[in-house]
């Protein structure tokens, strides 16, 4: 217990655009082990009745031999894992996603690990104090297999902007 009357107050936030290093890869930890409940809830919440996600008997008869984790859950989790470290309180908006691929399936019980490479940062031409930031997200399973990749463009505050 601190003996100080007013100890420092530290609030968790992401990084401002000018704190990001182009070429740096930020590893987001801990990983996330995906459960059957995650997959069923996400698939039904998003009105996706794909049998590959929900029907164990059907999925056993496919080339995969088992149910697959919904790829949109995989993408959302990969991006979501980056928030606390990179964009919490510093993001203005997502501007777009591109080059989304799922080169290897994610299975129930797999642990998903995420990382983000900062590929570009430039001041916004129309919004002073903000910057356009390009990110490359990668998700891997516990074996190191890449299960998701996505390029993402965001608008973020710079440190002298209003989000401090």
From TrEMBL:
Pfam family, one: MaoC_dehydratas
MaoC-like domain ranges (all copies): 22-128
InterPro entries: HotDog_dom_sf, MaoC-like_dom, MCH/BMMD
Family: Belongs to the enoyl-CoA hydratase/isomerase family.
Name of the protein this chain belongs to: Acyl dehydratase
Annotated organism of origin: Brachybacterium fresconis
């Amino acid at each position: 217990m601190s003996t100080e009357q007013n100890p420092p107050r530290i609030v968790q936030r992401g990084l401002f655009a000018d704190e990001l290093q182009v070429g740096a890869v930020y590893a987001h930890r801990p990983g996330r082990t995906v459960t059957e409940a995650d997959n069923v809830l996400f698939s039904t919440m998003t009105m996706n009745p794909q049998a590959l996600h929900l029907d164990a008997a059907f999925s056993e008869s496919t080339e995969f031999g088992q149910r697959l984790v919904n790829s949109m859950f995989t993408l959302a989790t990969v991006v979501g894992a980056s928030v606390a470290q990179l964009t919490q309180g510093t993001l203005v908006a997502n501007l777009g996603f591109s080059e989304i691929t799922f080169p290897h399936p994610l299975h129930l019980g797999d642990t998903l690990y995420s990382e983000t490479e900062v590929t570009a940062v430039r001041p916004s031409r129309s919004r002073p104090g903000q910057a356009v930031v390009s990110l490359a997200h990668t998700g891997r399973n516990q074996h190191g297999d890449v299960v998701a990749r996505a390029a993402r463009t965001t608008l973020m505050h710079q440190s002298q902007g209003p989000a401090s």
